[in-house]
Write a structure and sequence with these properties.
The complex is a heterodimer of chains A (205) and B (388).
Chain A: H1 2-5, H2 23-30, H3 35-56, H4 62-69, H5 73-85, E1 106-114, H6 123-130, E2 135-140, E3 147-153, H7 156-167, E4 173-180, E5 186-187, E6 190-191
Antiparallel strand pairs in A: 1-3, 1-4, 2-3, 5-6
Helix pairs in contact in A: 4-5
Chain B: H1 9-13, H2 18-28, E1 33-34, H3 46-57, H4 70-81, E2 93-97, H5 98-110, E3 116-121, H6 127-133, E4 137-142, H7 153-159, E5 164-170, H8 182-194, E6 198-202, E7 227-232, E8 244-248, H9 251-264, H10 270-282, H11 284-307, E9 320-321, H12 332-340, E10 344-345, E11 347-348, E12 360-363, H13 368-385
Parallel strand pairs in B: 1-10, 3-4, 3-5, 5-6, 6-7
Antiparallel strand pairs in B: 2-8, 7-8, 9-12, 11-12
Helix pairs in contact in B: 3-10, 4-10, 5-6, 5-9, 11-13
The chains are: A alpha+beta (205), B alpha/beta (388).
């Protein structure tokens, strides 16, 4: 079963004062094979698990995350500090359905075609674009266009103005196509208006 | 003679489910966090639901073979290979209405009036009544927290009489989370073969094990011929409402079981069978994602229960924690009933057999946030009732 590969081997741990407690780390030390390589793979798995749990809910405490992963609290606290320092974790934020509270907010996805520059490639142009505060995200993409830019404004006109006056006029930008977002159904893995509640009976065998 | 007196004494003699009474109590309460639910909190993966929608659109609405769709039986046979189980999809697999129907078919097929059926307890609530309805006498074999609720070979041996016909195994276990090790299974198989018993092995939670692979007793040499393996889609693929389960057994047993099935059920729902094919063929990633979540919640709840002073062994399978509540001085039922007032529903352990007294079942098939909230409430409750 593939899920076993990223879950710890429980080994022969006994129930007692630390049931399911720290076996995540302990069990791995008992495992056969090159210890340092396994250690690395284990650390990497742990990093990814911590990030995944924070991504799901950034208000989870390091203690809760540690308990969920079966590792000591201080390991997770240290790891999170490290991830923040390494700028792996850049910010903690909420997923918000703005449509519900702010009818005036306008978001546009803009496809931008550019001529890459010698030495700098696309990076320099991307930077010229992402420095504008109204730009929410910039990605280099494959396909007909080169950069995908997400822009937010107070109204259509403001966004249109930004595109025609700022974006299109940047040197090496050869074409733009603007798509205004009309409704968001799902973002960052979250369904915005999910009708599927918990339908289960309160107690079942 | 009153109307009731004219009804079947066997049916009238069945005790009503202990869960039922508790369900009624819990249903009246507002703002209850339920740790009492015996099914996944996930909705069936979308790819599976979508497959069923397409099946309906294509008019897939008629009976299937009594045995089940050939494509599904093939998918099941391949899937069971993963547990070292080898069954011929044409003759040795029967698709049923959930695992539940398979339990009923298995017991009705195996036992004669007066036979004894050994049921390690605490365990899921259906085996005992199904055995009684089949005319057999259920015999409880207690398992203990000291053995982490695994069936101890000497206890099994002690329960066997000349009238013993079959042994029911439910591992990974509801409600204790116990799983059997390779050695447990070998030891049990030896005793079973020595006494020429049948085994009904309900492996519905086989996918939900943490750190260790499920071992099926039917994989032990010499056991396949005397074992009916029961499994289904409900727990592994979050498909409880679809009622698609199956049993795998040697051809001669399946041929007898299918007779009851064809006269009472005909076949499992056709669109559900199509969905099950999709789940078995392409649902592994969805299943793995759910198992990972269960494992995280499992650690959270076991740690939390121990922290608030309810000693809890490590459940290694299913999605239940089964803490020892004897330190509170309350019976299982008192504990569960009084905890309701604190806004948490758990299931009293005695519902699963006398050996479950002193324990309660806490399902962790609910979000980590709900579990944390429930633990806070339980901590307040335990603080309030703990004798000084």
């Amino acid at each position: 079963m593939s899920s076993d590969s990223h879950r710890p081997q429980a080994g022969s741990q006994q129930a007692g004062p630390h049931p399911a407690g720290s076996h995540h780390l302990e069990a791995h030390h008992e495992a056969a094979g090159d210890p340092s390589r396994r250690e690395c793979a284990h650390d990497q798995r742990l990093r990814l698990s911590v990030l995944q749990l924070l991504h799901e809910n950034s208000r989870r405490s390091p203690e809760t995350i540690a308990d969920m992963l079966g590792v000591p609290h201080e390991v997770v606290a240290r790891l999170i500090r490290q991830l923040e320092e390494e700028k792996v974790i850049l910010r903690y934020s909420a997923v918000i359905n703005w449509d519900k509270v702010d009818a005036n907010r306008v978001t546009a996805v803009i496809d931008v075609r550019v001529t890459p520059q010698r030495e700098f490639g696309f990076d320099a142009i991307a930077e010229r674009i992402y420095r504008f505060p109204e730009v929410r995200s910039v990605s280099l993409v494959s396909g007909t266009y080169d950069l995908q830019v997400v822009v937010e404004g107070r109204n259509l006109k403001q966004v249109a103005q930004f595109v025609s006056e700022k974006l299109s006029t940047i040197e090496h930008v050869t074409a733009t196509t603007t798509h205004f977002l009309l409704k968001t159904y799902k973002a960052d893995g979250v369904i915005f208006d999910d009708q599927e509640g918990d339908q289960r009976l309160v107690v079942t065998p | 003679m009153s109307k009731l007196e004219r009804l079947s004494p066997v049916v009238r003699g069945l005790p009503p489910s202990g869960i039922r009474r508790f369900f009624d109590l819990a249903s009246q309460m507002k703002d209850v966090i339920s740790l009492g639910v015996g099914e996944p909190d996930f909705v069936t993966p979308w790819r599976v639901r979508e497959a069923a929608v397409y099946a309906l659109e294509r008019g897939f609405t008629s009976y299937t073979s009594n045995y089940g769709l050939p494509a599904l039986r093939e998918a099941i046979a391949e899937y069971l290979e993963g547990f070292d189980l080898h069954y011929d999809p044409a003759h040795e697999i029967l698709v049923t209405l959930g695992g539940s129907e398979s339990i009923d078919l298995a017991l009705r097929t195996l036992v004669c009036p007066g036979d004894e059926v050994l049921i390690p307890e605490p365990t899921y609530v259906s085996y005992r009544p199904c055995a009684i309805l089949a005319g057999a006498t259920p015999v409880a074999v207690p398992t203990t927290v000291e053995d982490e609720f695994r069936l101890a070979p000497d206890r099994l041996r002690a329960a066997i009489t000349p009238r013993t016909k079959a042994l029911v195994l439910c591992y990974p276990n509801n409600p204790t989370g116990a799983i059997l090790t390779e050695e447990d299974v070998q030891a049990i198989a030896r005793i079973v073969m020595e006494h020429d018993l049948f085994v009904v092995s309900d492996e519905i939670y086989a996918e939900l094990t943490y750190g260790r692979r499920h071992v099926s007793i039917a994989a032990v040499p010499g056991m396949k011929e005397r074992t009916i393996v029961i499994n289904g889609m409900s727990k592994a693929f979050a498909m409880t409402g679809w009622r698609i389960g199956y049993c795998a057994a040697p051809r001669d047993l399946i041929e007898e079981m299918v007779k009851i099935h064809q006269y009472t059920i005909m076949c499992a729902p056709s669109m559900g069978q199509v969905a099950a094919v999709e789940a078995l063929r392409h649902g592994q990633a969805d299943k793995d994602r759910m198992v990972e979540k269960y494992d995280q919640r499992r650690r959270l709840i076991v740690k939390g229960l121990n922290d608030i002073g309810l000693r809890c062994h490590e459940p290694r399978g299913a999605f239940y924690a089964f803490p020892d509540i004897r330190s509170t001085g309350l019976s299982s039922e008192e504990f569960a009933e009084r905890l309701l007032a604190y806004g948490v529903a758990v299931v009293p352990g005695n519902v699963f057999g006398a050996a479950g007294e002193g324990f309660v079942r806490c399902s962790y098939a609910t979000s980590a946030e709900q579990i944390e909230r429930a633990l806070e409430r339980m901590a307040r409750f335990v603080q309030a009732v703990r004798p000084v």
